[in-house]
Amino acid sequence: MGAGPAALCLTAELVEQGLDVKALASKSPLHPWPNTYGIWASELESLNMQSLLKYRWKDTVSFFGNGVETQGDKYTNHCLDYGLFNSIDFQKALYERCNGLSWEIETVEKIDFRETDTLVSCSSGEKYIARVVIDASGHSTPFVRRPVQGAIAKQAAYGVVGKFSAPPVDKDRFVLMDFRPDHLTKKELSQPPSFLYAMDLGDGSYFVEETSLACAPPLSFDLLKSRLNSRLSHKGIHINEIFHEEYCLFPMNLPLPYRDQPLLAFGGSASMVHPASGYLVGSLLRRAPALAEDIAKSINLTPLLSTSQIAKRGWKTLWNPELVQRHRLYHFGLQRLMSFDESLLRNFFETFFKLPRYDWYGYLTNTLPLPRLFIVMLKLFSIAPFKVRLGMMGLIINKR
Ligand SMILES: Cc1cc2nc3c(=O)[nH]c(=O)nc-3n(C[C@H](O)[C@H](O)[C@H](O)COP(=O)(O)OP(=O)(O)OC[C@H]3O[C@@H](n4cnc5c(N)ncnc54)[C@H](O)[C@@H]3O)c2cc1C
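That is the input. Now the predicted structure with flavin-adenine dinucleotide docked in place:
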């Protein structure tokens, strides 16, 4: 179910396994995806997919208030290439890997689990029967069951691709996080923080996005828009032309689904968004092959496994104990970050990017083995300023 990045990544692998796949989605798999996806270039290089990047920046920096000084601004140099996908090419490349499989344009309304198969009913009245169903219909799926664990924090962002009266970022530069607060009033400083994610797209156009890492309730688009405008006008910059506006809202701390349910899931629906960074696409590409292989094995076993047995084995592969533990650590980290005020958050990130590149990159992309992740978190604690340490221990109560 689905035709977003998760569905296409996994379908390609299921087809590769020689399985008989029926794909259902409300929209065609070639209907352009609404989001622009960014990624560290090395994540794609490790999969030999770097040619799918439309833009690639070598000059990748963040502003936290300290670092190398240049032209009055202080920045942290990430020394690691970052890229933006060409969404159309990415979508097409994944679709082509599905080897001619055609999607039924259907909206799933109901799923009934039976002993040896599953009945899927669609709003058109059409019904489909499958040995196992995989829900890749995104974060807000009503079908995947998960525990209720308090408020869901969401990443919210408002962005503009356009032309500006003066460059909002330096030429050929990508800014991961600009946390400089100079444009904020005292009252705004006490509100949940946001930062600028920005890049030079060439030909005089830029993408600038005011982003809140995670907040419950999420920051409103109106607030983010007004913060973006005041950030720009503080620098004497105004927007001359808007080509595209991006409204971004997705959950960061969705609890892991129950792993004994008869419905499998993949992508946003399976809580695969990284709770600390919000990234998903690299994980989808890395984790789809093992899940597809496991499903193929389960389906071909004799005597036949029940739907529920196939799904349970799939869940175990998708969320193996190591990945579950890492996810818990990331959740713990995010919980702490959400209690930080603006100045503590800036100090935290400044410290975070002082870690060796391998460590911060591995943390943000969820590619560090569990023992290393522990060590990195301890190392981060040991090098952090005293106040940040208190915050990491949960000893600073934010009265916001
Ligand atoms: C604006 C924005 C920017 C983002 N940027 C990045 C980024 O730069 N990098 C990154 O890694 N992540 C990013 N994310 C986070 C995450 O990668 C995306 O949310 C991603 O699109 C989730 O992929 P998905 O395939 O799980 O779900 P979706 O992309 O939401 O796709 C869901 C699919 O399911 C279909 N569907 C839904 N309901 C049904 C139904 N009942 N029956 C049949 N079909 C159904 C839909 O038509 C759609 O095809 C961003 C998210 C947003 C919102």
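The CA atoms of residues 10 and 220 lie 33 Å apart.
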